[in-house]
Amino acid sequence: MQPEKPQILFVEDDAVFRQRVSRSLNARGYKVLEAETVDEARQMIAKHQPGYAILDLCVGEASGLTLIDSLKEVCGDVTCVVLTGYGTISTAVSALKAGATNYLTKPVHVGEILNALQLDVEDYLSESSQQHQRELPDIEQPTLLQVEWEHIQRVLEDCNGNVTHAATRLGVHRRTLQRKLSKIPTPLK
């Protein structure tokens, strides 16, 4: 009988990404506690006291880094990995100074997350895990255009629909962004 795998708190406001990673971790036997907001995460920390955490750097308007102190206070020695779609040296330094064990830039593979959490990556590659993966339905991966579209939509939403402001945040000309918005990628089936 194998020992029970630890609980992992996953705080991510991007529902699609959170569900994909959680599903993959669950398939490997880990219990994932999903939170979409910092407040939800704090409630889960108090209730479940996870030993591991995957924290999105930007959770809505809040910072996932604010949860590290709560985790360490309630859970003691906790391993935290910070994920971000906007990786810079300064945010990496901030995450590590706040107490994160590791810092990864999205897109990221589950194997990289397990490695960053210092969990048994061998299990990730084990035969039983591969067998379990074969039993899961194939999930079609999004195309680069679909990922770009989702990112543009998220930034546009953060800018309250202001195309000029969104273009500035994306580092593109306003007309380039308008052209991209006029082309909708084919949805996943």
Tell me what the structure shows.
- The chain has 189 residues and is α/β, with parallel strands linked by helices.
- It folds into two domains: 7-135, 3-Layer(aba) Sandwich (Rossmann fold); 144-182, Orthogonal Bundle (Arc Repressor Mutant, subunit A).
- 51% of the residues lie in helices and 15% in strands.
- The chain is built from ten helices and seven strands.
- The protein has helices spanning 15-27, 38-48, 66-75, 89-98, 110-116, 121-125, 127-135, 144-158, 163-170, 174-182; strands spanning 7-11, 31-35, 52-56, 58-59, 62-63, 79-84, 102-105.
- The strands form two sheets. Strands 2-1-3-6-7 form a five-stranded parallel beta sheet, with helices on both faces. A two-stranded antiparallel sheet has the order 4-5.
- A hairpin with a 2-residue loop joins strand 4 (58-59) and strand 5.
- Helix 2 (38-48) runs parallel beside helix 3.
- The longest helix has 15 residues, at 144-158.
- The protein is elongated, with a radius of gyration of 18 Å.
Features:
single chain, 189 residues, alpha/beta, Rossmann fold, Arc Repressor Mutant, subunit A, five-stranded parallel sheet, 10 helices, elongated
Write the layout of secondary structure elements.
Layout: E1 7-11, H1 15-27, E2 31-35, H2 38-48, E3 52-56, E4 58-59, E5 62-63, H3 66-75, E6 79-84, H4 89-98, E7 102-105, H5 110-116, H6 121-125, H7 127-135, H8 144-158, H9 163-170, H10 174-182
Parallel strand pairs: 1-2, 1-3, 3-6, 6-7
Antiparallel strand pairs: 4-5
- Widest sheet: strand order? 2-1-3-6-7
* CATH second-level architecture of the largest domain: 3-Layer(aba) Sandwich
Give the uncertain stretches in residue-range form: 123-139
Count of distinct structural domains: 2
CATH topology of the largest domain: Rossmann fold
Distance between the termini: 39 Å
User: What structural class is derived from the secondary structure elements?
Assistant: alpha/beta
For the record, what is the CATH homologous superfamily label of the largest domain?
Answer: Response regulator
Radius of gyration equals: 18 Å
Principal-axis shape equals: elongated
Order of helices and strands: EHEHEEEHEHEHHHHHH
Strand count: 7
Name of the level-1 CATH class of the largest domain: Alpha Beta
Share in β-strands: 15-25%
Helicity range of the residues? 40-55%
Task: Give the integer mean of the pLDDT values.
Answer: 79
